[in-house]
Amino acid sequence: MTEATNAEARKQRPGSPAGKAAHARAEPGILVDAEIDELPAPQPTRVGSRRQLAYLGLCLVLIGLNLRTVFSSFSAVLPEATSQAALPGWAVVVLTTVPVTLLGVFAPLAPVLARRFGAERVLLGAMAVLTSGLLLRPVELPAAGHLPALLAGTAACGAAIALCNVLLPGLVKRDFPHRLGLMGGLYTTAICASAALGAGFTYPVYTATGEWTLALWFWALPAAVVLLLFLPVAAPQRPVRHTAVRDGVNVWRSAVAWQVTLFMVLQAMMSFSVFAWLAPILRERGVDGGTAGLMVSASIVLQMLGSLFAPALAARFRDQRAINTTVALMTGAGFALCIFGPLDLVWVWAGLLGLGQGSLTAVALTMIMLRTRDGHTAAHLSGMMQGVGYGLGSTGTLMVGQLHQATGSFAAAGFLFLAVGLLAAVFGYRAGRDRFVG
Predict the structure, then answer these.
(1) Domains in the chain, start-ordered, CATH in brackets?
(2) What's one Pfam family the UniProt record gives for this protein (predicted)?
């Protein structure tokens, strides 16, 4: 890349004065329109009044509020489900790994389905599948037990969430360009709150009812409510047949894109392992189920704080190597200290993990905007990051489960995440350099 090209590109950088207006339209970084390559360009959702537009915004935020409960709710009652349903060890590993893997597998299908049926209807269908999966998970089949329904329901939830992950940010960006900061903040906060609610309220429901199945069924209720609320908005939308036209650089051949994607892989390994295994880790250390759920919930709430400030800080500089390295090391150290650190300070370790993880996730997603020059390339990089990032990121939950099965404790997982945190720091350092995809 020539110096002249670098100079021209920096004019469009979010931190430069010439690029501030453009970046304001792009914030936050995860609001990437997956349908940006379509012709004709997708239009905003058709609503008849400002009140109906506000109702649409409420529905989109409530959808976000259901996108992480499937991950954190099962881990909150994992010991009870494992013992009462007589789940084999391999099944526990699969149940904590499959939904994350499917986020990557089904992500590329979302734009294809949206071109055929319209983004609103695909979102509606995804919420129907999510509700069905949540209802199916705790079902006990005659002569087969709980395992088949748990596997099928969990897989359905993972596929549905993958579609929502890809299409929902584009709808938020497209329908609320005049309130993008507000709606983007509400949407991202709702996703974090979803994980916190699943972690914090599942065990109390189990305590109140005495049934782990009822504690899991509980989360089908808010999903069903949102499905019914969104139905009158999405069903009348008339899909327009679109043609996909590739624009932007080939991200799969870009060294910068691979550095950003591997940074995303490593943060996903830690992020989803928090949802799947932090509560069981704390309970194995002697923390009771209710307190463990509250600790995970508090850690996730602190993720919101990190995700609020880290992208703005990262966007102020042309070079993000320092912040990427710092938050990666914070996350790896926080996770390891939750396993090895003094139990009296476990709230501190959980807080360190939450702040680090929230900041790490946010800056990894912000790299989409900071390392690209246009919306088309950003969309392609986002698709690459979601497909590879979630697909390989699920190996984190898989390895934790396998290490626990092999050793009988989570000690090995502590060393694993020290290593993952160090690798994330290395690739974060590389991805944070002042370079562009292509």
Answers:
(1) 19-245 (1.20.1250.20), 247-438 (1.20.1250.20)
(2) MFS_1
